[in-house]
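Same chain as my last thread, 132 residues:
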Amino acid sequence: MGYIEEFRKTLPDSDLRNFEGFLTNPLLYKTKAEEFSHWELSSEDMNEISSFPNIPLIVIARDTDVAVQSWIDLGLDIPVEEAVLYEDVWRELQIDLSNLSPSGRIVIAENSDHDIYLDRPDIIIECLQSLL
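reply #2:
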């Protein structure tokens, strides 16, 4: 089943048309390509920062197992090993990000994929409340 087909069951027609328009807009992929092409420069910029402020920092991460399954379900012929490797590296980067602040921490949103705010709004609320 295609990615758009998955949402056909849950989205009203008007939202589905907007969603389909978003996913098929060439500007989306141009923007993604530009983002990827600038990763090295962005990394260099971040490495030049002398120190990160001691502020509360919560990195909310998706569930690796759910994310790997999502890669497989997309039907893009991504080998399982590659999906696992991608998610493992992504998790390492998230841990590194959480360690930028002495007050940083990582929270794993179990049973959630990329859209944590939809899959696990309770985690978002819990993290926000912890900052109050």
